[in-house]
Amino acid sequence: MFNFQSSNEFKNRRIRFISKEDIEPHEILLDSLAKKKEEEWGISEKKIEVPLYRKILQGFYVFCFIIIFVLFAKTFQLQVFEGEKFIAMAEENNFIIRQIQAERGVIYDKNLIQLVSNKPSFDLVANVKELPEIESEKEKTLRDISQIVQKDYEEIKKEIEESKEQQVFVAENLDHQTLILLEAKIGEFPGFEIQNNTARDYLDGPIFSSVLGYKRKNDEKTGLESYYDDILKSKPGEMQIKRDAEQNPISKEIVSLPESGQSLVLWIDAGLQKKASEALKNSILNTGAKAGAVVILDPKTGGVLALVSYPNFDNNLFSQGMSLEQWKSINSDPKNPLFNRAISGGGYPTGSTIKPLIGAAALEEDIIDPETRLTCPVEICIKNPWFPDKEDCFADWKFHGTSDIRRALAESVNTFFYKIGGGFEGFKGLGPTKIKNWLKAFNWGSKTGIDLPKEGEGILPNLEDEWRIGDTYHFSIGQGPFSATPVQVAAAYAAIANGGKIYQPQVVKEVIDKDKKVIKIMESNVLKEVPVTAENLQVIREGMRQGVTSPNGSSYVLSSLPVSVAAKTGTAQTGRKTSDNRDYLDSWIGVFAPYDDPQIVLVAMVEGVEEGQVVALPIATAVLEWYFTQK
User: Fold this and answer.
1) Which of 84, 160, 174, 377 reaches 20 to 30 Å from 70, CA-CA?
2) Using CB atoms within 10 A of its CB, is residue 370 exposed (0-12), middle (13-18) or buried (19+)?
3) pTM greater than 0.90 (yes/no)
C-alpha cells in the first residue's frame, strides 16, 4: 500500500551544501520573514539569500568603537578638565546670593536739624542674567511689565540693554496699587523681582541741593553724597538662598550682617541757608536776572554756613525717581540748574570786588601809603600805541576829585585804581605781573579745596598775549580776561576779616555714629597766610567800613542793619546787551560782620543783571538782618 524507500537508498543520495559554514541566526530570521510575507500576499517567490560581508560587519564594529571613544573623551573632558567650571555653574544655579540692605548715614545741620533721611522704598528690579534667553519670551515679559508699571516698553528695553550693571532698576518707589499687582504676578516674569530698599529723602530738596547733591539707587552721586560716600555708605550683608531644580527657594541662610553708614554734621545753618536761598531767588525773579550764588563763611574757621546756587533743582526727584518728562525739563533748561555756580566752572569777572585786594597789594608794595592822595578825574586818557594821533580813555562812573585808599574803596573810585594798578603820568603802578602774583597770594586762580566735588579754579590772565596798559587798567578794577568763583572771593574776604588767613572752606564739621556720638572732628585747615601786614589789612577794612557808613559809600544801604558791617560792591561787564542796547552785568557784593569781631562773611553774585538795577545789595541786607535779628 505504501511504497517506502529503504534506508540504503537514502544513504546513496548526497546532500550538497552551498557553504560549509553553519547557518547564521539572521538567515533563519530572513526565512521566517519571507514565509510570513508569502502567507500575507498569497504569492510564492524564490529568494537567493546572501550573507553579510565580513568587511561590512567589521566596519560597523569600528564605527561603534569610534562613537564610544568620542563619548568617553567628551565625558572625560567635562568631568576632569572642566569639572570645576561646571561644578561652579551648578552651585551658581543651586545657590544665589542676595544683599541685605543697611541704612546709609544721614546728614544734619550744625544744630542737628536732620537734612537727609532714609525712607522705605519698593522697587522693581531686572536681573539681566536671569531674563528669558528666547527673544520672543523676553519681549513678552518686558511688554507685560511695561503695562503694569506704566513705562514705555522701548525705554525699559533700552535701559536693560545699555546697562553695565547686572541689576537694573525698572521702576522705583512703586505705588501701593502697582506693588500689589506685581506681587501677585511676579512669578510670571522670570528675571524680575521686587526689592525692599531705602530712598534718600531730602528736607526742602531744592534749598539744600547745591550742598547735599543727591544719591540715586543706581549709585550715581553728587554733592556731599559723593564727596563723603566712603563715610556715609553702608556695608550690605549677604543672604544665601538655596534653590531646587526649578529655581524655587528651598532655604535661606545669612552669610554676613549689614553695617550702617556713619553720619555727618555740617557747618551749614539750615535757617541761614533757607534765608539766603529765599533772598537770592526773590532778587533774581524781581529783576529778571539770569542766575546767581551766595556763599557764607565763618571767617574764624572756614566753616561754610550757607552755600546756595540758583536756579536749583529738587534732589528728591533723583533719589526717589522722576519721569522722562521731568528729566528732559531739567536737562534742557538753558539756565542749567544742575550747575553749581557757587563753586564750579571758570567763575565770573569780579568787577570792583577785586579792589580790596588791589589796595592791599599797593600798600604792601609801597606804591601808596594809607595817607597818599591821588587826583581822580572822571577819566584818564593815554595815547594809543598803534595810532599816535588818538587816545584811549578809561572812565570812572562819576567824578570823585582827590581820594585816598579808604575813600577809593568806599566810593569805588575807578581812576584811583587805574593809577595804582597801571600807573599814569610818572606815577608808577603795580603792573600786571605784580597784580597777578598778589591775586595768587589771595588764592585766586587755585581751588580752595572746599569739600564738594567739581570745584573750579577760576582764570588768571595770560600776560604774554599782547598785553597793553589798557588791559592793566581793566585788570585793576576786575575786568578783562580773568574770573573767580564766589567761594574764592569769599575765602579772600574772610582773610581780610580775620587778619590774613586763607582757610579751606569746610562744609562738614563732624562725623558721628548712629547714636550721635562724635567719631571725628574735621579740623580747620589754613591754606596760606596772606603776606599783608596787620596795619595794611586794617586800612582795607576801614575803607570797606567807610563804604557802609559814608552817605556816598557804595554800600550805604547796609548802614540800617542792626549790626556794624564792612562791604564792597562790584559790577562787571559781560559783553552782552539788552534789546534796548543796555549792558548785561554781573553784580557782586562781599561783606563781613560784625565789623569789630567778624563772625560771618557773605558773598553774593548775580549774573545777567540789566544795567541800572541793584540786585546784590538787597540780598546781603535781607540775609544779615535776619541772621543778626535771630542771634
Assistant:
1) 84
2) middle
3) no
Domain ranges across the chain: 97-261, 270-630
Percentages (nearest 5) of helix, strand, coil residues in the chain: 40, 25, 35
The burial class, CB within 10 Å (0-12 / 13-18 / 19+), for 37 is exposed
Give dist(CA 115, CA 112) in Å, integer.
Answer: 9
User: Tell me: the pLDDT tens digits for 578-593?
Assistant: 777 888 899 999 999 9
CA–CA dist 232, 195 (Å, integer): 21
The DSSP call for residue 448 is: -
Q: Which value, to the nearest 10 degrees, does the dihedral of the CA atoms of residues 605, 608, 610, 615 take?
A: -20
Torsion sign, CA atoms 542, 544, 545, 548: positive
Neighbours of 395 (CB within 10 A): 13
Instruction: Give the integer Cα–Cα distance in Å for 161 and 176.
Output: 28
Largest CA distance in the chain: 175
Structural element, H or E, at residue 247: none
Q: What is the CA angle 247-175-96, rounded to 5?
A: 20
What are the CA-CA distances from residue 200 to residues 106, 118, 408, 521 (Å)? 9, 5, 51, 25
The DSSP call for residue 80 is I
Q: How far apart are CA 499 and CA 477, in angstroms?
A: 23
The two beta strands, 583-593 and 518-521, are unpaired
Q: For the segment 367-418, what is each residue's pLDDT rounded down to a tens digit?
A: 999 999 999 999 999 887 777 778 889 988 889 889 999 999 999 999 999 9
Helix pair angle (355-364, 534-549), 10° resolution: 140
Q: Would you state the CATH architecture of domain 270-630?
A: 3-Layer(aba) Sandwich (3.40)
Residue pair 157/210 in contact (Cβ under 8 Å)? The answer is: no
Q: Tell me the CATH number of domain 97-261, given options 3.40.109.40, 3.90.1310.10, 3.90.209.20, 3.40.50.300.
A: 3.90.1310.10
Q: What is the 3-state secondary structure (H, E, C) of 593-607?
A: ECCCCCCEEEEEEEE
